[in-house]
Design a protein that fits this description.
alpha+beta; four-stranded antiparallel sheet; 4 strands
């Protein structure tokens, strides 16, 4: 089943994001290589593709996991959470309707 992992950043998270980004992306690459990643990306803190120093306000990941518990376990091991980038992470079942 698919799960949405909705992450909210701590204030002024950009330096921490930059430091933990390689490890964060490596985990996402493993999901992609396994054919389980639907989409992933950050929420710019301002209405701009490249927010520069404004940074990001959070992230969204939609991926396939065996269960809600396994999705939560994966999300709770994210380097962004460990390094203090994320203040809060919510994991919910997700039903993709479009594109079909």
């Amino acid at each position: 089943m698919l799960y949405a992992i909705i992450c909210e950043d701590t204030p002024n998270s950009l330096p921490k994001r930059q430091q933990a980004r390689p490890a964060h992306l490596a985990r996402l690459q493993l999901l992609q290589d396994a054919g389980r990643l639907i989409l992933a990306g950050p929420h710019p803190a301002i209405d701009c593709e490249n927010p520069a120093d404004a940074g990001f306000s959070g992230s969204l990941i939609v991926a396939e996991f065996a269960s809600l518990d396994s999705a939560k376990e994966w999300a709770n091991a994210d380097p962004y959470l460990d390094s203090g980038v994320y203040a809060h992470v919510t994991v919910k079942p997700f039903k993709q309707t479009f594109p079909s």
